[in-house]
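Sample entry (77 residues):
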Amino acid sequence: MNKFFILIILNILFFSKVIAATANCVNCECEFIDNYHYKFAKTYCSQNLSFEKVKTELSYFTILKTSQKCDVFEIIE
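Predicted structure, serialized as C-alpha cells:
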C-alpha cells in the first residue's frame, strides 16, 4: 500500500506537465520563455512585461502576478 502512494506522489511530481512560462511584452508583442504553446505572440494587452510569470493556454495567457487575462490573436512560431 505504501508503494502505491509513493508511486502516485512520484507521478504527480515528475510526470505532470505544468504549463507556465515567463513573458516579455512590448507594444502588444510578447516573447515567451519555456512555453509549451508558443514562442512569440501578438496580444490585445498593452501592458509591458519584463520576465513576468504567466500561465498559458492555447488562445490566451494569464499574468500570475495580477491575474489579468490576455487574449492572443496571432501566434508567431
